[in-house]
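Retry 2 of 3 after timeout on previous attempt. Resubmitting structure tokens to design endpoint.
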């Protein structure tokens, strides 16, 4: 699980480093080769191609990777017909597709593209491709109302067997949240990813951006209407792997903040104000380690406040919310 933490912030931190390299005097001592951040950025985006699941496109640059997991979703057909869950990304060195951190990756990739599209230069196309690989999968996972397929692959079976995804014979069990077994953190994060991606694609592909934004709204509504943690709904299938230790309130707020930005409307303002209050209350119940100020797939707090700070009416949100 350690490697995925690297993956999820790879582009964002790379771009921050690029910005720093461009704006700050060089700290490299004489005779030393300066770090090549442009190369690091290219490799970082290439890494996403190595993590691809599903049917690989002709543009695949890491050609040692082949098609894999082409039947994902077929076991989901108990009450419903089988679902197409082919695609998306594997998690770090595992062959499980964990929807919660995957969605967070989508939100951060989108944010990187939104903030740094000019600095990305020729890598912008690769960043868009990496993001679309993820959002295409999220659209499949959220295709049915009030249901999200949040994980594919039995994590115990997977972790007991180290093999290439191309050859795997482990269980590809599909896990879902729905109106009786909610998952507000995974819904909030998925909504955030879809809404943020709609901004990232707005100018290059407006029809796709509309589709993403419309889905972001229904997914957020589902997470907000049926509140609960997917750790409770799915138990040992998701915890301790990607258990949301910081509570789902931050993801609902994060989702509303991204929807607010993506829709340019005041539609989500009340959700944000209410979300801040809920999140503050939740924080007082957390133990000290979970309250730590870090930004990652579990705790979105720092990102939320930076995002709200960049929005027009931020002072209102922050003032009203803390009262
Ligand atoms: C709702 O989700 C739970 C937990 O994943 C699952 O056991 C149940 O079958 C789902 N309900 C329906 C109607 O699909
Ligand atoms: C939101 O505003 C930005 C900047 O004015 C614009 O580019 C974008 O198209 C708008 N988005 C929507 C969904 O209206």
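Retry 2 succeeded. Sequence:
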């Amino acid at each position: 699980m350690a490697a995925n933490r690297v993956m999820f912030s790879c582009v964002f931190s790379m771009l921050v480093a690029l910005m720093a390299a461009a704006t700050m005097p060089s700290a490299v001592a004489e005779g030393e080769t300066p770090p090549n951040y442009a190369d690091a950025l290219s490799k970082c985006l290439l890494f996403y191609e190595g993590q691809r699941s599903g049917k690989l496109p002709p543009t695949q640059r890491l050609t040692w990777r082949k098609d894999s997991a082409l039947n994902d979703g077929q076991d989901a057909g108990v009450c419903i017909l089988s679902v197409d869950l082919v695609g998306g990304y594997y998690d770090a060195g595992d062959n499980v597709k964990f929807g919660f951190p995957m969605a967070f990756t989508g939100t951060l990739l989108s944010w990187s593209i939104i903030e740094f599209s000019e600095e990305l230069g020729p890598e912008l196309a690769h960043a868009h491709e990496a993001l679309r690989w993820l959002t295409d999968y999220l659209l499949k996972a959220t295709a049915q109302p009030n249901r999200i397929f949040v994980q594919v692959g039995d994590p115990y079976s997977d972790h007991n067997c180290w093999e290439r995804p191309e050859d795997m014979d482990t269980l590809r069990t599909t896990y879902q949240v729905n109106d009786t077994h909610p998952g507000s953190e995974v819904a909030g994060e998925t909504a955030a990813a879809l809404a943020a991606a709609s901004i990232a694609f707005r100018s290059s592909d407006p029809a796709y951006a509309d589709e993403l934004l419309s889905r972001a709204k229904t997914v957020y509504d589902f997470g907000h209407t049926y509140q609960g943690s997917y750790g409770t709904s799915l138990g040992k299938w998701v915890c301790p792997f990607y258990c949301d230790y910081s509570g789902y309130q931050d993801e609902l707020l994060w989702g509303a903040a991204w929807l607010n930005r993506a829709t340019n409307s005041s539609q989500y303002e009340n959700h944000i104000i209410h979300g801040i209050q809920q999140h503050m209350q939740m924080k007082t119940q957390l133990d000290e380690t979970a309250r730590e100020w870090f930004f990652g797939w579990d705790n979105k707090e720092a990102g939320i406040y930076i995002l709200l700070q960049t929005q027009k009416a931020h002072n209102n949100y922050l003032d009203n919310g803390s009262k």
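Attempt log closed. Residues 79, 175-176, 178, 180-181, 233-234 surround 2-acetamido-2-deoxy-beta-D-glucopyranose (ligand 1) (CB under 6 Å).
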